[in-house]
Structures
1.
Amino acid sequence: MRTTHWLVSTVLGLLLTGCAGIHTAPTPEARQALAPAGKLRVGLYLGAPLSVMRDSASGEMKGVGFDLGKELARRMGVPFEPVVYPSSGAVVGGAKSGQWDVAFLSVGAAPTKEMDFTAPHVEIERGYLIPAGSSISTVAAVDRPGIRVAVQEKGGTDIFLSRVLKNAVVVRGSSVAGALEMLKSGRADVLAAGKATLFEISDQLPDFRVLDGRFATDQVVMAIPKGRDLGMAYARKFVENAKSEGLVKAALERAGIRGAVVAPLQ
């Protein structure tokens, strides 16, 4: 009986210790480093389910970045303030002037000289949206002379495709919506973006479809401006806990995202 009691007590103690570790508030120094204004300003870009979407009727906001930022602020014990931009490139620009404290960005869109990163929390496929009657049938067939590829200007897809496409021409919209208008109006032949965004669009526009396959797999990370080293350990731990506790998976499901999965634990 004593052995059984000891085992139960030990297991219970380990569980409680584990739970305490998961939900431990940051030290005052880490909190100050991550939220120097006394609130957590989270950089998000509108129109992308991996960042933030706004319901046109209710005004409700949702998205993986929005949900995780809100939960991080709750665990830190500070107010949550979303700082919303029209594009991921604009989020990057906001870092230079100290407009946000953390942001959720693709690795390709986040300059390493200006930011530090956690491990990835989401992995996404990047692909193409084409008109239903398009003659393009494979991802490889996009890179041909005369093909115009619409992208969100200065986003991760723009940066990647501008480097790797040899024959197709990259044309740019100020936002995902702007790039989509180029495709709809015939000024572009395909729209390139993360597949999570493309599936969201194709659900609303039956005359367009997501091309099978992918041209890249991208990783999404939490980015923090350089110089906040005292908060990085807490941020990295939060991301790993968010993955292991199912928070990232729940955020993906709430946003209705396809073409994206929870990144492996580090």
2.
Amino acid sequence: MSVPVVFSTGSLHPFGLERVFGWAAEAGFDGIEVMMDDRWDTHQPAYLIDLVQRYELPILALHPPIYQGAWRLGPEETLVRSARLARRISCPLVVAHPPPPGPPLRRWTAGPLAAARGEGVTVAVENMPANRPGFFGVRRGSCHLPEHLADVGDVTLDTSHVGASGIDLLAARETLAGRLRHVHLSDSNLVAGKDEHRLPGKGLLPLKSFLAALAADGYQGAVCLELKPWPLGTPDPEVILKRMRAALEYTRDGLRRTATEAS
């Protein structure tokens, strides 16, 4: 079975959810990851199910809001409710952003993360980008190293976050392979602390070798294109569709290659 390649609605967040579903269907993606925010369209079950049926694109992942909660709830309660929503709409996976390593991560893992997983869906914790030093010193650390995620169970690997953290992408994949359930794919110019989410093939990450290694390992999750709107050609719909198709073909080509061909 081939690895599904899906599109994150967060890649085109200035547009409405329905337009993004339409473009993803027209470009030929296998599914959608919904980036939730404070708009009801991004977390109303009946509307999401209607979009799935009209565009014949399954929602294969939900991503709770990055900087705040939804439903006027805090981030921790939102994570649990997002897992409940995923179950209601038959979405198999929720992406979770962890707090900093150490006691905050341990408390979160035993509390909100365990509660969200108790809803019966996969909740895959994402590696974060390393923080740049602040003006007055080092900022609070983030879970950017593979070893930070050693005790959290299922994992989402974000390639742009790897690039921003100065980590070897192929080594990170190998370390996390047994727990890897979801991938956010984008490129990076490997600038420390800069989370770029460039179009695949437009940066310095070895993405073709990474994709070939995923396929060779029998990876069972999805690969999700999580990009920024401006490299996709926003706001021009023709350019957006052209670049979505090119990114999709790049990803599928990488998944079809052997490790030797990709190197």
3.
Amino acid sequence: MTTVTADDLRNMKPLRTANHTVGDPAATAAMIEEDGYLFFRDVLDHDAVQRLKQKYMDVLIDWGVVDQGAVEPIWNGADISKFPVKIEPLHDARVWEEFVADPAIEAFFTKLLGAPPFWLEITEYRVTPPGEALPEDPFFGRHQDGFYNMGMECFTCWVPLMEIDERSGGLAIVPGLHKGDFFHDREDPPQYRIPPGVLPNDNWHRSLYRPGDLVMFHKMTPHSGLPNTSDRFRLSMDIRVAPITGALPLIGEVIDFTDEAITIRDAAGRDVTLSIDADTYCRWTGGKRISTAELRELLPVGDRVLASSEGGRAISLRPPR
């Protein structure tokens, strides 16, 4: 593996802006088909973004790692050795719902997609604590979203909630590699990582991000969060969207669940039964593949499930969160 230095990260190629495609869904589709991503500068309502950021700040202040009254998530030196990957208070509060329901946010995505947005209940609240130095492999988080969400026809929307410079890290993307197969190692269960050296180190792109910006990318686009070597926590949110006119997954209540099939009651009260086989990708919140039996224990009858399917067969099953 070629060593990547701090200078390499600072000198990464910038993302190409796509603001000129807003309001022209055909141009938007053509650009994401070419690059595998769309980078929009200052398109999301600042008040909506600020309200979302404050919910993150409230958690960090409550946890004692950011000082009361702070307006930026500057680390106060408290112990963060056991800082969690999943920010459960934000998941429990489902704060993404208020954000996407904001009229200005909904209007932007309707204009962008050419149809009202359908939000998949797949959200990651990213709070990356500061670290002292770059790891040997700064792209250790490299992955393609589609691998862990088989059959989900949607775009990932990465929303920065603060200014994110090269020290804070942020999102990095390898453009143009979304048109082939997965790069994940299928012989490396249960995470099936993309190994070091598979993606070109000299073709990662990132930009200086600010509140109001948006990166929307294809499910097959390789990407990674970069290390945070700043003095503050890095705040962002991942949400998944599709035009409501597209091929949508099934979200609903588990009515029956065996090793061979699952029955789901959708929002309209219809019961849909999907068969399950050895290729069905079952997962929990961390992304790694688990057995159908394990998922049955975690998703009992009465819980909600998110499923992709084809021809009456479940392609993937996961919790909607």
4.
Amino acid sequence: MAGNKRAGYKLATYQTKEGPRAGLVIGEDVFDAARLTGKPAYGSVIGILADWKRAEGALKKAAAGVAKSAVKSRAKRMPLGKTKLLAPVPNPPTIFCAGANYADHAAAMARKQGIPEPTDPREQGLKPWFFIKAAHTITDPGTTIKAKHYADELDWEIELAAVIGRPAKDVPKAKALNYVAGYTIANDLSARDRGRRPGLEPTSIFKMDWTKHKSFDGSCPIGPWIVPASDIADPQKLGLKLWVNGALKQDSNTGQMLFTIAEQIAQLSINMTLHPGDLILTGTPAGTGGESGKFLKTGDVVKLWIEGIGEFENRIA
């Protein structure tokens, strides 16, 4: 796994004999976050995010201490290569997913379906729109995802995921990024053939089944860690790529989003509170299987990479 060398630390969840624990990835080592900071509440990433206003400084201070070899006695070093990393937010309160937020993907899907290509939503006065994936869909990086028995048209979608670190309600766009604790990578796996309800005409307004389409077990791999927002100079200038069995399928940049992350947070927070640990998947660019008609098969390996964050992969079974 490759990370962001500029960051003092990455926030992760790692496996122990006692269960998942929050860890700080510093260089090529992992440290237990609670033991390193001396704060028992920081034993989980959700516990850290719930106290993000104070935790952000505490984690930076702890990471700086490690760099100076000042806190070796407080927490044991664990080699990153021998530590099992789990999904950084194993149980997010809510997973919000931006729909059709890259123009090239929306246009390609429309062409595949034989319908007119959508016009710029801004020209129509539209705002960002979302669907929700169930929290139990979260999946660890590096695991085998058992989903081919469920869907014949299993598709991939790389997305930058923003992790909320402060309660946010009615947030203006200009201040929206202040509520982001950090960023991670997500794959919004989609069961294309499960998204259409059988027995209904294609023109029916009730034809879609978003639950079966998006919320099956294993459909939201995230990882490998959270890079603090303070270490991402501009989240709208990040390259992102996805490969299937080494073949590059998606290759884009977050600058191609139709609606920025700040606009998405502002829209979601209208009369609704976003909570620490909520994930916002910010959309996927062109290059999905739904556009070409070629989908994931048993044994396929999907690898995701986002600039400044890192990479991970999953195998399909």
